[in-house]
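Feature request, filed as a ticket because there's no other form

It would be nice if the structure record came with a short human-readable summary line next to the tokens. Right now we just get the raw output. Example of a typical job, pasted below so the devs can see what we mean:
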Amino acid sequence: MSADVEFSRPIEVERIAGTPSQFKFDADPAERAALADRFGLISLDRFQASFTLRRLRKDLIRVKGHISASLVQACVVTLEPVPAEIAEDLELDFSENVDDPGLEMDLDAEAADGPEPLSGGMIDLGEVAAEQLGLAIDPYPRKPGAEIPAEWVGDPTATPASETKVNPFAELEKLTKKRGGS
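Raw output as currently delivered:
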């Protein structure tokens, strides 16, 4: 496991053939605790990932996967625990020739992004799963029925101070009147 990656499952690209290869793994308690810390969760109680990898051609690998997780976040209003279940599918392509401007690729039209760069002859499926988890987490979890306290809500009809136009000449006139001057 890499020192900077909480959940690492490296797969050698050379192992990937034209026939699909299956990989499945669960995060252990230490990995779940580290991922919970990374994503600001109260807890990550379960995290599983399964992948199918297939070489589409010499320089292109297709990764299809599914992640599932049980987690607890803090409500953005009350800070009370908010449990959540996540189940997400993903599909990515990896290529060593991403930076080659002359490379013409025949990619799946339904794939949203171009291929991810591949370096070092490895694909870290753990990090792929962790990144997908990070994207799937609700950025503003809210406990059912949680309401923002009335004292936190400003007057919706009031004009914010930043939008109030100040006439500099009127302000100057006020200052000269205070000084009793002309």
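Something like this underneath would help us a lot:
The chain has a mean pLDDT of 85.
The chain has one domain: 1-182.
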